[in-house]
Design brief:
Helix 2 (8-63) runs antiparallel to helix 6, helix 7 (223-291) runs antiparallel to helix 8 (295-323) and helix 10 packs parallel to helix 11 (365-384). By secondary structure, the protein is of the alpha+beta class. The two termini are 71 Å apart. It contains 13 helices and twelve strands. The chain folds into three domains: 2-172, Beta-Lactamase; 222-323; 325-466, Histidine kinase-like ATPase, C-terminal domain (Heat Shock Protein 90, 2-Layer Sandwich), CATH 3.30.565.10. Strands 2-1-5-4-3 form a five-stranded antiparallel sheet. A five-stranded mixed sheet has the order 6-8-9-11-10. The chain has a two-stranded antiparallel sheet with strand order 7-12.
C-alpha cells in the first residue's frame, strides 16, 4: 500500500480528484440544505392548513351545539388523528389545559409550561421552532374563533427531514476532515515529489560541474523519481566511462604517434639515409675513376648508383604511402580502396571481394580519408584477428550519404555494451573508426558475436557519383 501511494500516478490522481471531490461535496451540501429549507416550508404550510382546518371543525361544533362551551366533550366529538404526522395535534384552553389530544391520556393535562405552548398562548397564530429535550420542535398554532382555545400542532424537525437531510449539521466536521486530508495529500506530495525533484536538480547541477558524488545518496520520493535518479546515475556512469575511455584512447593515440615517429625515424635512418650515404660514397668513387680515366669502372659504379637511387626512391614512396596514401590523393577513394584490397590480399589466404556498383564515388578529402582509414582498420582486423575465409567490402552512394561496410565470416567477438569498455579491452582500432565517423557527423555500427563473424558499417554524410 505504501509503495502504491508513492507512485506518481496515484499522487497526481489524488491531487486532481481531491479539489473536484470537495466541489461535488459542496454542491451536494448546498442542494441538501436548500431541500431541507423547502421541506421545512412545506411542513409549516401543511401544519398551518391542518391547524386551520382543526380550528374550523371545533368552531363548527360549538356553533351547532355539538360541543359544550367548556370543551369537555371536544375530544370525543373531534377524534383527532395524527397518523400522517410525525407529532401531535392538541387543543388547549386559555390556561394551557388540554381539551383534545391525539393521545387520549394527555387530555386534561396542564401544558402551559411545555415547549412552544407559552408562545402559542401569547401569539395565538403562527409557527415557531423551539428547543426540546429531543431536539428542535416545530410548533404551529391557530386560534379557534369565539373562544380562548388554541389548536397546537407539534412535530420534531429531525423526524421531518429524515437522516439524509441532517447532513448539513455535519458540514463543519466534514470540512475540517477534508482540509486535514488535503493538507496530508499536499504534504505527502511535497515530501515525495517536489523536494526529491529539487534535490535531484541540485545534484544534476553539481554533476555538470564534475561533482559526481552528488548522486551517491539513496534515491528518495515516488517510484518515478527514484527511477529518474537511477537513470541519471547510470548516465553519469556512462559519461565517466566514456571520459575514461577517451583518456585511454587519447593516451594510446599519443603513444602510437610517438611509436610511429620513432619507427619512421629508425626506418629513415636505417634505410634511405644509409642508402643516401652509400650513394655519396659511390659518387666519389665514380668521380675518382673518371679522373683516372677508368671509364669501364666509372660506368659500373654509375649503374650501381642508378639502381640504388631507384631502390631509395621506392623505399621513400613506401614510407610516404604509409603516412598518406598517394593513390587516395591522386586517383580518389575507389582506386585507393582497390589498391588497399590488393595489398591486403597479398597478406592473407582469405578471399576479399570489393563491390562498388557501376559508378565511381567521389568525396571531399576529409571524408575520403576517413572512409579509407575505416576500411583499412576493418580490413586489418579481419585479416589479422578474425581468421576469416571471406571478406566483402561494399561501397554504396545514396542520397543521405556514403555507406561503407566490411563483412567477414570470422570468429567474431562479444561486443561490449558500452564503447568505453572497448578501450579497457585494448580495442583502440574500433574506437578510432567510431571517432572518425562521429567527427564528420556520421556514425559507425558494429555487429559481432562469437562464431558469427563481424559486420562493420560506416555511414558518412557526403557522397556524389561520377558516371
Amino acid at each position: 500500500m505504501g509503495r502504491l501511494l508513492r507512485s506518481l500516478h496515484v499522487q497526481l490522481f489524488l491531487w486532481a480528484v481531491t479539489p473536484v471531490t470537495f466541489v461535488i461535496i459542496a454542491i451536494s451540501f448546498t442542494g441538501v440544505y436548500a431541500h431541507q429549507q423547502e421541506m421545512r416550508d412545506f411542513v409549516v404550510s401543511r401544519d398551518v392548513a391542518l391547524a386551520r382546518l382543526t380550528a374550523q371543525i371545533a368552531q363548527d361544533g360549538l356553533a351547532h351545539g355539538v360541543v359544550a362551551g367548556d370543551g369537555s366533550d371536544l375530544a370525543t366529538w373531534m377524534a383527532l388523528d395524527a397518523s400522517d404526522l410525525q407529532g401531535a395535534i392538541i387543543v388547549l384552553d386559555e390556561d394551557g389545559r388540554v381539551l383534545a389530544h391525539t393521545s387520549p391520556g394527555q387530555i386534561g393535562a396542564d401544558l402551559s409550561r411545555a415547549p412552544g405552548v407559552p408562545d402559542a398562548l401569547a401569539l395565538r397564530q403562527g409557527s415557531a421552532i423551539v428547543d426540546d429535550v429531543e431536539g428542535p420542535l416545530l410548533t404551529t398554532f391557530e386560534p379557534i374563533a369565539g373562544t380562548g382555545w388554541t389548536v397546537l400542532i407539534q412535530e420534531h424537525v429531525d423526524e421531518l427531514i429524515g437522516p439524509l437531510l441532517r447532513f448539513p449539521s455535519l458540514i463543519p466536521a466534514i470540512a475540517a476532515g477534508a482540509a486535514i486530508l488535503s493538507l496530508l495529500i499536499l504534504g505527502f506530495g511535497w515530501l515525495t515529489i517536489v523536494r526529491p525533484l529539487q534535490r535531484l536538480a541540485r545534484s544534476a547541477e553539481q554533476v555538470s560541474w564534475g561533482g559526481y558524488s552528488a548522486l551517491s545518496g539513496p534515491p528518495q520520493g515516488v517510484q518515478e523519481v527514484r527511477d529518474l535518479h537511477q537513470a541519471i546515475v547510470e548516465m553519469v556512469e556512462r559519461i565517466r566511462g566514456n571520459e575514461a575511455g577517451m583518456r585511454d584512447y587519447l593516451g594510446a593515440v599519443t603513444r602510437g604517434q610517438e611509436a610511429e615517429r620513432a619507427r619512421l625515424a629508425r626506418e629513415l635512418h636505417d634505410g634511405p639515409v644509409q642508402e643516401l650515404i652509400a650513394l655519396g660514397q659511390r659518387a666519389e668513387m665514380a668521380d675518382r675513376l673518371v679522373e683516372r680515366e677508368q671509364k669501364a669502372g666509372a660506368q659500373a659504379v654509375l649503374r650501381e648508383l642508378r639502381q640504388t637511387g631507384h631502390e631509395t626512391v621506392g623505399e621513400l614512396r613506401r614510407l610516404i604511402g604509409a603516412l598518406s596514401p598517394a593513390y587516395l590523393e591522386d586517383l580518389g577513394f575507389v582506386p585507393a580502396l582497390e589498391m588497399l584490397i590488393r595489398q591486403a590480399s597479398a597478406r592473407t589466404q582469405a578471399e576479399i571481394h570489393l563491390d562498388t556498383g557501376d559508378h565511381i564515388v567521389r568525396l571531399s578529402p576529409d571524408v575520403e580519408l576517413a572512409a579509407y582509414r575505416i576500411a583499412q582498420e576493418a580490413l586489418n582486423n579481419a585479416v589479422q584477428h578474425a581468421q576469416a575465409q571471406h571478406i566483402t567490402v561494399r561501397v554504396q552512394c545514396r542520397e543521405d550519404g556514403l555507406i561503407l561496410s566490411v563483412d567477414d565470416d570470422g570468429v567474431g567477438f562479444d561486443l561490449p555494451r558500452r564503447p568505453d569498455l572497448l578501450t579497457r579491452s585494448g580495442r583502440f582500432g574500433l574506437i578510432s573508426m567510431r571517432e572518425r565517423a562521429t567527427l564528420l557527423g556520421g556514425r559507425l555500427q558494429i555487429q559481432s558475436a562469437p562464431g558469427q563473424g563481424t559486420h562493420v558499417t560506416a555511414h558518412l554524410p557526403e557522397c556524389s557519383i561520377v558516371r
